[in-house]
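Slide 14.
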Amino acid sequence: MINRVILTGRLTDDPQFRYTPSGVAVVTFTLAVTRPFANQNGVREADFIRCIAWRKQAENIANYLKKGSMVGVDGRLETGSYERNGRRTYYTQVVVDTATFLEPRNASNSGEKQKGNSDTSGQDKNASRRAREAFMKPPEEQGWFDDPFADNGEPIEINDDDLPF
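Slide 15: predicted structure.
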């Protein structure tokens, strides 16, 4: 049987991190996932999905994500129930196997300065810009595009017996 869930969304609140009595790290959070269609009023609604992660994955989520962070999760669907005050409650949640942080760590800091003694953001921006510009150049301008048949102008004659297919 296949039980696989892949979601992308934003945290609705800061992750709730704790340790179990046996010392295992666990984090819970709710992910707002926008539906791919609009309702009758033209508004795209969201589903709010409860997620839980364990051990190192839980520690990473607690340390690096906060309310509003965009994250992709890959895991499995789990259902269960518990009884409280004589009333049975059923739940569904995603048990996260992997979480992918989909934006830079400081993207949702609303202009807060990064921790550290020196401001290297100007250098980082320039290095990032240069790398982006180099990557965006056409292959022939990057120097690795070497077409031996370019500008020849003559048709290529190949015997069908020489082709491997």
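Speaker note: Residues 5-104 form a domain with the OB fold (Dihydrolipoamide Acetyltransferase, E2P) fold (CATH 2.40.50.140).
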